[in-house]
Input
Amino acid sequence: MNIPNLTRIKNFLLVGLPMRLVSAEWEDQLPGVKGRFYPNRWAYLFHQMLKRPTYAFLKMRHEHLHRWLRERLLELDMVKPGMSVLCLGARTGGEVLAFLDIGCFAVGLDIQPVPARRNFFVLYGDFHYLQFANNSVDIVYTNSLDHSLRLQNVLTEIKRVLKPGGLFILEAVVGGGKWKPSAYESCTWDSFDDLLKIITSDGFQLARQTEICDYKEQAVFVK
Output
């Protein structure tokens, strides 16, 4: 048996077989929003940790996010040097670097920082239970709401840690027919407008909305 076959067997045992245990059922969470069914939080965490992209993919995505998010933030002209920023679901920290380039104090948070022991930009943490104080950061950024277990819990935590007048910068898929959730997403919405309605009904004010590409948009909210 050659090495490629051993690699395929290992990947199947570590990822392929466990993924067959992940529920394909979705349940209504909020108007226009569905969440994948999990029997408990541990099943959700187990599912999220099954995602094992290749090093080459992570490196490409890291560099792409760093470069293009920085350009989008500069065009936005609402992020200023010295602001404190919390990036949720930051994985490798490309988004953190984008804010650092502008002169912000920035840190990322993820349940599975990559690489685990050499990532200086991302701390371990769960965005449903943020470990930071009330009213403590100027900006919260995320592109990972589609990986939330309970969307409302995440939005409540974002609002809690943001300072009055702070910015919530969201980048997300449009939902609906243009984008279907993959095997790893835990939350999906019928349309980006449905997502905006939920966020604004939670006390955020929509300040800016921009199309990033044909399947993703950016929205900036003020607490």
Observations:
- The two ends are 58 Å apart (CA to CA).
- The longest strand covers residues 162-173.
